[in-house]
Amino acid sequence: MLLRLKNIGKIYDSNGILTIGIRGVNLCLDYNEFVTIEGESGSGKSTLLNVIGANDTYEEGELYINGEETSHYSEADWEKYREQNIATIFQDFNIIENLTVLENVELALLRIEDKKERRKRAKELIDRVGLTGQINRRGSKLSGGEKQRTVIARALAKDAPVILADEPTGNLDVKASKEVAALLKEVSKDKLVIVVTHNPEFFSEYATRRIRVFDGKISEDKQLSEPEPASEDVKREEISVSRFHGLKNTLHIGVLNYKSRPKFTAMMSFALFVCAVTLFLVISVFGQSLIKPLTVPLDGAGTEGKVIVSSADGKLSESKLDELAAITGAGYILFDNTTSEFSVTLPESGNLSEEYTVTCIYSPYEYTLKKGEAVLVIPQSAVHDAEAIKTVFLNAGVGIENINTVKTLSSDAVKLYISYNEASENADRISAIYSTVRLGENQTPVYTFRINETLEVGSINLVNSNYFNVVGETAVFSAKAEKAYTVADASARDKSVNGIIVEMNSEDYYAVFETDNEVAEQSVLFFASDELAKKALNKLPEGYMGLLASGSIYVQNPGEAYTEDLMWYGALIAVSLLFGVLISIIFMRSVKIYQADFNVYRTLGIPNKVSSRSLYIQMFMIFIPTLVLLPLVSLVATVIPGSGFTFISAWNFAFIELMLFIIVELVAFGFNKSINGQSIRKSLRRGSK
Ligand code: ADP
Ligand code: MG
To answer: Where are the domains of the chain?
Structure first.
């Protein structure tokens, strides 16, 4: 005996109100029976079917399966029971509308690992239900009868001994109903078919048994004809629990989810795209000024073994630094005082549309520069003057031969990053660009300084001077205000520049531009190796602080930068999570649809685990296009003239993609949680109106 129900009772408890679904049901059911169940609405037909199909529990009596008691069954046992024994057909078709007939049927054949074999089997079944002509049609394009036939093919694909149909013709016209009934008969050989119906006339020629339910009880149980004896050679496919070769099926279902919900997929992709663009803009606009690299290479000044020193009182003189070098055995020092940052004012002139203050920074912190190189960071507002600003620095003879321009959206300051060599040798010359010279009452800008050895010490030439009558006059310029020079000649003219070029003897020249500011806040000692640098740290006397900058790595304010970065990234991550939550909330509306799909999967014997995991796969697929879209957005931003965007860095790309990935998987997680949180059985109770 396949199934035996002994005194089965099912009581519903909804908020303390008890309703009897069925009671005292005694039935024996076997292979080759074709049973119809009739009865009024609410009499308990669906309940009976659900108990048999283990979609619902029973509270009283005992259900025997192949003679085995089931009252001790665990959830896993039931899952296995459903998987191996039950195929279900509902009134409302229960197919996945956006998948084709073939895909729908194949879903029930996932246990077959070989794809070709699976397809062959699906085609056979589709042929059997007469849908070969519609094999590649989407479920939504099928008529009711065709949908139900698809479901029957799927039920057959499961190859379960028990086929349960709850009002399978409830939504079909007469012709389609007759076809479906005939089909059910056709497939009933060697199976137990139980059909709940309000239209017994369709089944009257096939049914071997008729059961009537009234008020939860069996009111009639009539044998109509002798069922065929079970064939001797009934061969049941041995279905092992591990038949869901997990990952592959998860992937497959994930892809189907993706395909079957194009609207959802498109909207998710769009939402993700919006996130990507937002994060990209935030990072591009604020990132440059906010994200501080913790470790950056120093330029060619030293190769390894650097110690950054500062004194407790914040003041470090060159002579003290020399002492420290002697104590620690440093081979080289960078006395880094005012040269680390200063500004140059470029007045409005023929080429410059307005006055600019250019902050010159010796900063291995942001850029690694070789001798003669500089990087000009130009804000959006100054882009049109970039070339003119560059020209000033390139023509001033201050060691800079090559300037790269970086446009920025983030700051209004024009910055010039100079190399170590320029910082140590030419910083004063750079800062003297457009200093002024005072001749008696008159003040005039100095364009640049040049060496002219023919001049006597203490005298200067003013090239391109309007002051032809000032020979012998006293000149004082702001670069070295405390010293006065005598103008020796003012005859030469250079039409290419606006201001005055000051020519002086090399002795004067160096006197003006030699660094004489004795106090620095921070300086650098260089050693032959990291080893020596490490040892030097211990040798530093009281009152000095040393920071090892290992290898070619220079660490500037690591603590501060670290905290700032942490806060910045923390904020970005928080924004991303917020996005994730927002998208989750918006898309929670689709939960019901997904739940319906998941229930279809479940009736096909696909474990819950597989369907939940498939959701992560689906979301991953939604995520994949952003890997291309983000660089594309970045590229477009770069191409827009004057946008100031630079192409996204690898690090920012990785960061944004990681955030997007977290967002989609967070959405998948939220989805899964709310799907699993709802009772599956409740939504399975369909077909009982
Ligand atoms: P049928 O399928 O014959 O129309 P059902 O088996 O759906 O009837 O229902 C039998 C009885 O159980 C009805 O009184 C119905 O109201 C009740 N019932 C069905 N499902 C539930 C449920 N989930 N919670 C509470 N009562 C239910
Ligand atoms: Mg019903």
So the answer is: 3-241, 256-293+558-684, 306-430+522-554, 434-512
Q: Please report the DSSP string for 150-197 in residue order.
A: HHHHHHHHHT-SEEEEESTTTTS-HHHHHHHHHHHHHHTTTSEEEEE-
> From the CB of residue 363, how many other CB atoms can be counted at a distance below 10 Å?
22
CB 405 within 8 A of CB 378: yes
Regarding the beta carbon of 556 and ligand 1, being less than 6 Å apart is answered no
Q: How far apart are CA 546 and CA 525, in angstroms?
A: 9
Compute, in angstroms, the gap from residue 116 CA to the centroid of ligand 1: 43
The distance in angstroms from the start CA to the end CA of the chain is 32
Decide yes or no: CATH 3.40.50.300 for domain 3-241: yes
Report pLDDT digits (tens) over 257-292: 888 888 888 888 898 999 999 888 888 877 655 555
Tokens of 281: 């803009």
Residue with CA at minimum distance from ligand 1 atom 17: 21
Atom of ligand 1 nearest to the CA of 47: 6
Mean residue pLDDT of the chain comes to 82
Q: At what angle do helices 144-158 and 115-128 cross, to 10 degrees?
A: 130
Token digits of residue 612: 């939940």
E strand or H helix at 617: helix 608-623
| Whether residue 500 has pLDDT greater than 60 | yes
DSSP 294-307: SSEE--TT-SS-EE
Give the number of the ligand closest to the Cα of residue 39.
1
